[in-house]
Amino acid sequence: MKCGVLGDPIAHSLSPVLHRAGYVACGLDWEYDAHRVPAGGLAGFVDGLDASWRGLSVTAPLKREAADRADSVTATVALAGVANTLVREDGGWQADNTDVPGAVRAVREQWDGPVTAATVLGGGATAASTGLALAELGARVVRLLVRDPERAQDAAAAIARHPSGPLVEVEPLHESGVIGEIVVSTIPAAAQTADVVERCADVPVVFEVVYHPWPTPLAASVLRPLLTPGTSGDGRVLVTGLDLLVHQAALQLARFTGHPADDALLSAMRAALPA
After folding, report:
1. Nearest to 200 by CA among 174, 231, 233, 168
2. Tens digit of pLDDT for each residue in 8-18?
């Protein structure tokens, strides 16, 4: 069987490393490769696949196209409006979103405290998925801090559709405060100014989705106390983009193969990541 990851750019993707390691752990002789597919090209690529193809991982800029191309969508995709997974089922393609449950698992792996409110830096597709994860974790208020409020409306609407009915606030990135127990950053390292990092300083959990380049300024602000000789850190928790990547990939592999996304699979995938 064949699977693969689609996106543009795609050469940097770690998905082939993770999924191939997962296949070995599951005893499967499957293929998984990266395919550069530019914006607007997903439907044409998918329509050209033969019956040997089982599943596709989807990354930027194709997540909305994946949801639109699918013959059916999961409840999570219906909420998020974006998909990172396409699975062939009954002759058609079903869109799924493993970023949402993957983010929940990544946080709960390291933080068992309450989540009553949270902040997301950014307002794109990843902000929508992580915002829904925050609502799933219990956040009643989710604040999006964005550079362009108009471009964040889709993400805000997606989070507001969560069955728990969270209040979603959209505020300017460089003016408004950070709220809650968790701050999720989906913005590039270059946008993480000293002021932005300082406003996140009192948040117990930092979830840095960006993993290249590493560390970002926000991640470094959490790591620095841990790495300073003679200190024991400040008690803050850092959840990384690699944590999310592994969890969402394991859930994708489970959809593709039927193998559970258990601790053994997670361990095999993590061991395959570059040092």
Report:
1. 174
2. 999 999 999 99
